[in-house]
Amino acid sequence: MMMGAGEIWAGMGSTIAALMFVYAMFQQYCPSVLRYQFQNYSRWFINLLNPYISISFYEYTGERYQRSPVYADIETYLTGNSSQLARRLKADVVDDGKDLVLSMEDYEEITDNYNGVKLWWASRQSVTTNQTISFYGTDADDRRYYVLTFHRRHRKLVTDKYLKHVREQGKKMKIENRQRKLYTNNKNESWGGYRKKSMWSHVAFEHPSTFQTLAMDPVKKKEIVDDLMTFSKGKGYYAKVGKAWKRGYLLYGPPGTGKSSMVAAMANLLDYDVYDLELTSVTNNNELKKLFIEISGKSIIVIEDIDCSLDLTGQRKEGDKKENADEEKNPMVKMAKKQRNLQRIVRSLSLGF
Q: Where does the sequence pass through the membrane (predicted)?
């Protein structure tokens, strides 16, 4: 005799209720040692039935303020495959809007094949809300990450060869599709959260200025170009002598004298990104260090009006206020003190990074 649908659901409900009752009694009266052993055996049994292994790659991990380079390489690698395999895509434009780049949408999955082995990539995002009061609204942290899934018998192949292949291909594609960017630092109100939201926002760097178009003394122009090219090829030399691989230029003059054009010409010559650091939005040295940590290599850092942003050097002592006030009346003393403060800032930036 066939049972009706109602009877089947009623039987399932009774069974589930009985199992929940037994589980509650087990949790309440069973000794913790036995519960621990039962949980271990349960996990072992589940893992025995599931032969697949998963590896997660987070965009930001732990207390890191810098975006994970592994995540960035994987993102670039998957961008090349997702346009052909993914069902849901995100679109972005590069190269002055001429080229369209498609990448995986969140919660999308694609398959990859390496040496005859099938692997699965998934884009994930976990969102948590911080219970903080802010004039800028609720602070929601979105932690993006990729999940790689494969059969356990391919563990050695994946860990020894495949992941290295993904990173190498990602770096290669990043160089081929590189687009220079202009970064500006965000205000610290928008930083917070576990995800360590980027302290920089960016747009495509598109400036026509070159050293061929700059109106300046040809001898001085050649001197600057030669110095820049020597610096760009001198990474090994700086490492050999134990110095940081960096170069500083002080550009000064009234508005309209070509300072911005000079920076753009340098960026176009070296193919470097440009970071426009606005010191007025930085409140202390700790925030300044966090900003510098996020700056990528082979970049030009522009600090405008540095002589007007001297608060980072520290506060004056109370006992020196009267003496300093008397000295400020002398314009020569005031200029000398301003120059010393400027040098102190430059030294702080140079030695810290």
A: 7-26
CA distances from 114 to 109, 164, 166 (A): 17, 12, 10
pTM score, whole prediction: 0.64
Q: Which two tokens stand for residue 140?
A: 């929601």
Sequence-ordered alpha helix ranges (H) in 62-133: 69-85
Contact yes or no for 308/282 (Cβ under 8 A) = no
Sequence-distant (6+) residues with CB within 8 A of 6 are none
Residue 109's DSSP bridge partners are 122
- Adjacent-strand bridge partners of 202: 183
The pair of three-digit structure tokens given for residue 205, joined into one six-digit string: 């760097």
Largest CA distance in the chain: 109
Residue pair 252/258 in contact (Cβ under 8 Å)? The answer is no
DSSP codes joined into one string, 18-62: HHHHHHHHHHHHS-HHHHHHHHHHHHHHHHHH--EEEEEEESS-T
Closest to 75 (Cα-Cα) out of 10, 143, 144, 157: 144
Instruction: Provide CB contacts within 8 A for 221, sequence distance 6+.
Output: 211, 214
In angstroms, the CA 56 to CA 74 distance is 11
| Amino acid at residue number 259 | K
The CA-to-CA distance between both ends of the chain, in Å, stands at 81
Q: What is the pLDDT of residues 72-130, one digit of tens each?
A: 999 999 987 776 777 777 777 665 556 677 778 888 888 999 999 999 999 998 766 55
Gap between the Cα atoms of 101 and 90, Å rounded? 8
CA distance 208 to 236: 31
Radius of gyration of the chain (CA): 29
CB contact set of 283 (below 8 Å; sequence gap of 6+): 188
